[in-house]
Amino acid sequence: IGQILEFSRLDAQPEEAPETIDLTELLESVVEDVRYENQGNDDRGLIDLTSEGACIVNGYPGALRSAFENVLRNAVLHGQGSEPVKGELSAQETRAEVVISDSGGGVSEEDLAQLFEPFFRSTNAAESAASGSGLGLAIASRAIEMNGGAISVRNTGSGLEFMVTLPA
After folding, report:
1. Which of helix, strand or coil describes residue 26?
2. How far apart are CA 52 and CA 30, in angstroms?
């Protein structure tokens, strides 16, 4: 129910004004939260985050936090527990780029095109014991778009790679 409400809220006009956000700090905080959630769960929650230093963007911090939480939780859930999820943050002149990759084997090309659709669950996720509502990546997509950015995904051969670009 919480995810449905969050998804609906992202359609509404934000009540607050955009803020200056240290994206590096925000991502480090999200990574710590996801690691904490997965404590004692074998090797799940291993996340390697690399950054070139401070990266400042303007946007809605709550929406960005939610977007990255959903992508990272998805990567941890569907990745191989012994292989860390990799996150890379780089600051370009006019944009910030965040790449998050897992080693979960990827999804079919048909499923790949639908991953950001509300309530869609890939064949792999539906067949596994992984729980989910199919809203996490839809929330991530809307939250990134709300912040003037874009999110894309591709198969890497060993898993999925999500690329988020945001105006800097």
Report:
1. helix
2. 17
Query: Per-residue DSSP letters for 95-123?
Result: EEEEEEE--S----HHHHTTTTSTT---H
10 Å Cβ neighbour count for 44?
Answer: 19
- Threshold 0.70, pTM exceeds: yes
Element (H, E) at 51: strand 47-51
91-104: b (≥16 Cβ within 10 Å) or e: beeebbbbebbbbb
- In this predicted model, what pLDDT tens digit does every residue of 79-123 receive, in sequence order? 876 789 999 999 988 999 999 999 988 999 999 989 999 888 887
Burial (CB < 10 A; 0-12, 13-18, 19+), residue 52, is exposed
**Contact status, residue 126 vs residue 133, Cβ threshold 8 Å:** no
- Non-local (6+) Cβ contacts of 99 within 8 A are 86, 87, 88, 161, 162, 163, 164
CA angle 136/38/134 to nearest 5° reads 15
- The DSSP secondary-structure symbol of 139 reads H
